[in-house]
Amino acid sequence: MKxxxxxxxxxxxFVTGAAVMATEMCASRFIAPWFGSSMIVxxxxxxxxxxxxxxxxWYGGRLADKKPxxxxxxxxxxxxxxxxxxxxxxxxxxxxxxxxxxxxxxxxIIVLAFIGILVVFxxxxxxxxxxxxxxxxxxxxxENTGRIxxxxxxxxxxxxxxxxxxxxxxxxxxxxxKETMFLAAGILILLGCSGLIGRKKLKLTFFLLLxxxxxxxxxxxxxxxxSDVVHEEESIYQYLQVQVRENGSTYxxxxxxxxxxxxxxxxxxxxxxxxxxxxxxxxxxxxxRPDSARVLVVGSGAGTIPHLLAVHVRPFLQGxxxxxxEIDRRTTELGYEWFGSTPEDGEVFTADGRMxxxxxxxxxxxxxxxxxxxxxxxxxxxxxQEYFTSVREHLNPGGILAMNVNCLDExxxxxxxxxxxxxxxxxxxxxxxxxxxxxxxxxxxxxxxxVPDASSVPNWNSALDYTxxxxxxxxxxxxxxxxxLLTDNRxxxxxxxxxxxxxxxxxxx
Length: 509
Description:
Number of helices: 15
CATH superfamily of the largest domain: Vaccinia Virus protein VP39
Distance between the termini: 65 Å
Strand order of the largest sheet: 7-6-5-8-9-11-10-12
Radius of gyration: 27 Å
CATH architecture of the largest domain: 3-Layer(aba) Sandwich
CATH class of the largest domain: Alpha Beta
Shape: elongated
Order of helices and strands: HHHHHHHHEEEEEHEHEHEHEHEEHEH
Low-confidence stretches: 98-109
CATH topology of the largest domain: Rossmann fold
Structural class: alpha/beta
């Protein structure tokens, strides 16, 4: 059958292959503000995309046998472009009001959310998958079917590689997720309309291009509309929002917004009634020589802990030195822009915390681990026996590890497992429950430690009195009676967290 249109067949499948993966990459970022980007969400997305592609291959082959038409082939990217143009509108309509945060995740909401993902993202992937079998049918002859098929699928796969890298490294960080979808939709519509025959082709092309072009301007900058938002953006790693509340506090929220990642209160004041961040300020005073403490904060976010140490502890312990590690450079920069953090608070290294410890020769007296890849999910490689061993190797004698664990109670499987793992490396393990619900602090050392008594500690900041009193009441040795030993080979912390969420949501706890 004579080729129609001016786009070479191999370029055609290259572009459509790129569009499939671009849609998947955008899907993962688009749903993150509502459902996060945990392994379970990624697994569902990949499964949905693969299932949609399988159905598209199957149906496309059947349709190509019945109606081998260039017009039908060129209509496929047009239809897909229209579907993708509608995703920012349909997705927001379906997902707004849904929350995957740990504090309110009924099972029916999770189920409806995944149904919404199926409804929104299956149609464009299904239609695009029909392209390859259609193109094979139109081009292949009996004597060269294998060569044509292999070449077409090779070009489609190369397009998929480009469709993975360009959105994730270029267009999503520079333009945004919705803008990337509208750009892909516009390219697909142009690709399809280039091969359609008829006097109305130009009018149709112009009309259809109004969908992505109009959507670009009409949807605004926000993905997920939330009150009090003063800034939002997408970094390479996550979706970020800065919110300023009525009381003047500034919050950093990432992805689905189940919890804050950093906070700045007016005039850097402390809030002893909510001692999550305040408790970390007591750690240098637990050392034998607090006046020369070197502190490393792994997972500093917008710099709340280093900044509070600089404001409330360093004036009293003038030898205090703080380093921070944060994988997302944009959260560090937002700390400087919105949260009052400054470079004088301490040097910040942009890296994965585990990787930093693997290459640095620096030694510390306190290492704080407050890392979350997606609100409530601690990166598994920051919970293992190997990680705690690396921490211990970078602690001076008498040094302290402090780690935040987001869980329901002391009997939670994830807390028991992390505590048991820490106890396999350190001789002394303690636990404290800061005033903020859902948070526990594991403190480990090779020396006996205790909460400082304000009356006997020199160079003490009296603003920490009440925090110290609360922590004295909560601070106790921790001897896990259950849980598993977490290793790099096996550390199912996401599974433990998901099971905890479902148990809480279903009311079984």
